[in-house]
Specification:
alpha+beta, three-stranded antiparallel beta sheet, 5 helices, about 25% strand, globular
Length: about 170
């Protein structure tokens, strides 16, 4: 019996467009810059690692955190240089009490992995609060939806695309 010739496998090609976050930015016609860097799994802080790798001030690099405010998941976007004030977050969305969400629930709901959660292009759109300090900068960096990938854009564009409430929710 003759052997069949080897044929290239029919592997699926990766769809162009990047992450859901960059796809959402492109679809909205927003100006943005993508910054990629080699992620070190041993680094103790995803956000500080991003700031160091990009050579950007930690005050301009914002982390995306998911909290539970009175039973509703809420996204908080704060500078990596500080911490989230849970009481201020709850007040910003008219709630009484906030706590950090279960990481597995945050991942399932947003469609992103911890350390790569973006405020943009989430699987389920959540209420979002952007720390008011973002408006002090022409551009800020947030996760582009993957560890080792950041997107730089204007805070106004981020607020518009996420329907974010702007409030002082970060603390040093």
């Amino acid at each position: 019996m003759a052997k069949k010739p080897n044929r290239p496998s029919k592997a699926k090609k990766q769809q162009p467009g990047g992450t859901p976050a960059t796809v959402a930015l492109t679809a909205a016609g927003v100006t943005y810059t993508v910054h990629a860097y080699e992620h070190d799994p041993a680094h103790p802080s995803y956000g500080e690692e991003a700031a160091e790798a990009m050579g950007v001030s930690p005050e301009r690099v914002f982390k995306t955190l998911v909290a539970d405010v009175d039973g509703a998941l809420t996204v908080a976007v704060v500078p990596v240089a500080g911490q989230l004030d849970l009481k201020a977050l709850a007040a910003a969305v008219g709630g009484k009490r906030a706590a950090m969400a279960d990481p597995a629930l945050a991942e399932r709901t947003t469609g992103y992995v911890r350390g790569g959660i973006s405020p943009l292009g989430q699987r389920k759109r959540l209420a979002t609060v952007l720390d008011a300090s973002a408006s002090e900068h022409a551009t800020i960096c947030v996760s582009a939806g993957r560890r080792g990938l950041e997107v730089e854009l204007s805070p106004d564009d981020l607020a518009k695309l996420t329907d974010a409430v702007i409030a002082r929710i970060g603390r040093a």
